[in-house]
């Protein structure tokens, strides 16, 4: 897969949006289904540990995108099976979070000890498997087209994670290679959530492709922001320590850009060549990356992707769903966690 191609033509300028978050009227149905799904676990321990993560304050971004994409195209409110599919997306997301924490050795998730840190890797992997099994149960009734779309997204996510792992500590990673990785590991899921909303609303190929592009641009911006926050985010807002990706050797756009900047690039390479990074080395690299303009460049690229996402929405008829999708983009532009 090539790096995401930005939409042609001038991008609409970013401007401040409203301070309140996008509407969540549909999410009550999703929350209710999630509670029923997790409560249905045959193991009381699985239900308890699953609830510990599922209701610790997640954004519910994927079900929200699915439902807003549905509402933007359907002339009727989401039926029960749509809420079930929206919940399936969140269950899949929860499964990936748990497994990622185990792979990364993460100790904090959503301002709490991660499941693997609090209960051990074995229990965490099994809870992740439980989330995945509940995802399959929730998604299966939606039919083969929905399952094919989701299975393709999962495959792409795995490919992206494997490519990222292959490039750990690889200071030669290019911006184009980085964009290919995030288009798979993060953007593919958001694109699938949006396209699935269009599919569930009965949309044709043209509308499905529009929402797929919208989700892909949004997903690339979301991952870029994650990578920026790993350098400059507030740990109290992030709910996890800053610099975790850098310490694990994950090469992201702020560092890729900084490594092109002469004197500072030499200093950064020297710091990274010294073996495992302690807090002092991490802070020194972070400061050099910021001085080299890496944060500003990555933020500009994230905003570019957000503009392209907004441009995709301009062909939709005005309405509450389109307005909420636009507000969601604005809220991500100001994202701090």
Describe this structure in words.
With 337 residues, the chain is mainly α. It has two domains: 21-142, Farnesyl Diphosphate Synthase; 143-337, Farnesyl Diphosphate Synthase (Orthogonal Bundle), CATH 1.10.600. The protein has 17 helices and two strands. The radius of gyration is 20 Å and the shape is globular. The two termini are 29 Å apart. Mean pLDDT is 89; it is low at 1-23.
Characteristics:
about 325 residues, Farnesyl Diphosphate Synthase, 2 domains, two-stranded antiparallel ribbon, 2 strands, about 70% helix, disordered N terminus
Task: Present the secondary structure layout.
Layout: H1 27-39, H2 44-54, H3 61-73, H4 80-104, E1 108-109, E2 112-113, H5 115-119, H6 121-139, H7 144-166, H8 175-185, H9 187-200, H10 205-232, H11 235-238, H12 244-247, H13 253-258, H14 262-272, H15 279-291, H16 294-313, H17 320-333
Antiparallel strand pairs: 1-2
Helix pairs in contact: 1-2, 1-4, 3-4, 3-9, 3-17, 4-6, 7-8, 7-9, 9-10, 10-16, 14-15, 16-17
The domain count comes to 2
How does CATH name the architecture of the largest domain? Orthogonal Bundle
Instruction: Output the CATH homologous superfamily of the largest domain.
Output: Farnesyl Diphosphate Synthase
Largest beta sheet: what is the strand line-up?
1-2
Gyration radius (Cα, Å) is: 20 Å
What is the strand tally? 2
Instruction: Estimate the helix proportion, in percent.
Output: 55-70%
Q: Ends: how far apart?
A: 29 Å
Major sheet summary line:
2 strands, antiparallel
Low-confidence stretches: 1-23
- At the first level of CATH, the class of the largest domain is Mainly Alpha
Class by alpha and beta content: mainly alpha
Q: Give me the CATH fold name of the largest domain.
A: Farnesyl Diphosphate Synthase
| 3D shape | globular
> What is the helix tally?
17
What portion of the residues fall into strands of 2 or more residues?
Answer: under 5%
Strand-and-helix sequence, N→C?
Answer: HHHHEEHHHHHHHHHHHHH
Average of per-residue pLDDT values: 89
